[in-house]
Amino acid sequence: MRAVVLSYSHHGFGMGRTAVQLGHELVGAFDPLESERATMAETFGCPVFDTATECLEAARPDVALVSGRHTLAPSYLQACVDAGVPALFDKPWADCADRLRPVVDAAEAAGVWGALTLPTRELKVFDVIGQSIADGMLGDLAHFHSRLSTSTPTRYDNMPSAWHNDPSISGGGCWAVECQHGIDIMLDAMGGQPVQAVAGVISNAMFRRPFDDYAAGLFRAADGSTGLVECSYAYPLGNHSGEYVIRAVGTNAIILGQYTADLVGQVQVHTSQGVRVYAETPRADMMASIMGRSIQALENGDPPPIPLRQAVRVLELQDAVYDLARQSSATNGPHLMAAPAPRP
């Protein structure tokens, strides 16, 4: 397929590189910054454009690979909707649900195909939880827990995605950047039932920078099941990329997914009959897998594996946790936090 990359940073770079590895052709690229356009021209070897609309009109792609700053990415997706170009949309999607919701509404009304590229959907534990719920092995889901700890926020400083550390663009810190993975898997495990945030804590105690370096959201589903999603920037810089743990506790079994010290993933299913162990999907394979599945669905005329509407659901819960945490100094701080981007 002929693809364009809308916005650079490590998100756009990763999507563009992965598309080429999957055998697709990059026919255009866009970023609002001239310096990033120059980098894209050199990296991708394709024409670059000053606006997303110009890129779509001139390149006439089969699909757009969309990412970008939290406050601007929805406008790039809107350009795809206006041009009728299908899109793969990488997180963080937006700083808040209110900025993205009108664009998703417009895409659905116009029938423009769009898919989210959440690599954590390719985790083996995601499939094991879903299958265990479907066949009854888990029993009723009682508790869900996700913990994602990535390395320190300095990894973004002086990089094309330094805006992750600017709450006036991102809307916050680690919660605005990383919570989407855990909330998405939690929502899938809980099914289509209503889920609400009931508590939130954000902290900048570790690095004392004006954004959260630890955050936790507590959720309750309509059937009474509880979810806890944690994010942090606590993992030390180095060769390892972080810690990721997913746990689903049911009335019949416990499912645990995690990566070991050598980054080899493992999924354990604990029942009264013993423990069953599965190999986890290698981290390096996940982005190519979700992009490949999504593009194949587009080529086949199938629905997107992860529709755009899921991003709105996730962001609504992301926003709710921030709102709860920011109500009190007991759940916000202890050091001064910068003001987030105003919501529309």
CATH level 1 name of the largest domain: Alpha Beta
Task: Compute the number of structural domains.
Answer: 2
Oligomerization state: single chain
Runs with pLDDT <50, length 5+? none
Give the N-terminus to C-terminus distance in angstroms.
35 Å
Task: Give the CATH H-level superfamily of the largest domain.
Answer: Dihydrodipicolinate Reductase, domain 2
**Count of individual helical segments:** 10
Structural class, by secondary structure, is: alpha/beta
Order of helices and strands: EHEHEHEHEHEHEHHEEEEEEEHHE
Radius of gyration: 20 Å
Q: What is the third-level CATH name, the topology of the largest domain? A: Dihydrodipicolinate Reductase, domain 2
Query: Which strands sit side by side, in order, in the main sheet?
Result: 14-13-12-11-7-10-9-8-15
Described by strand count, sense and barrel closure, the largest sheet is:
9 strands, mixed
β-strand number:
15
Fraction in helix:
25-40%
Strand content: 25-35%
Provide key terms for this protein:
single chain, alpha/beta, Rossmann fold
What does this structure look like?
The longest helix has 18 residues, at about 285-300. The chain contains 10 helices and 15 strands. It has 2 domains: about 1-110, 3-Layer(aba) Sandwich (Rossmann fold), CATH 3.40.50; about 120-280 and about 310-335, Dihydrodipicolinate Reductase, domain 2 (2-Layer Sandwich). The model has no long low-confidence stretch (mean pLDDT about 95). A 9-stranded mixed beta sheet has the order 14-13-12-11-7-10-9-8-15. Strands 3-2-1-4-5-6 form a 6-stranded parallel beta sheet, with helices on both faces. The chain is α/β, with parallel strands linked by helices. It has helices at about 10-20, 35-45, 50-60, 75-85, 95-110, 125-135, 165-170, 175-190, 285-300, 310-325, and strands at about 1-5, 25-30, 50, 65, 85-90, 115, 140-150, 195-205, 215-220, 225-235, 240-250, 255-260, 265-270, 275-280, 330-335.
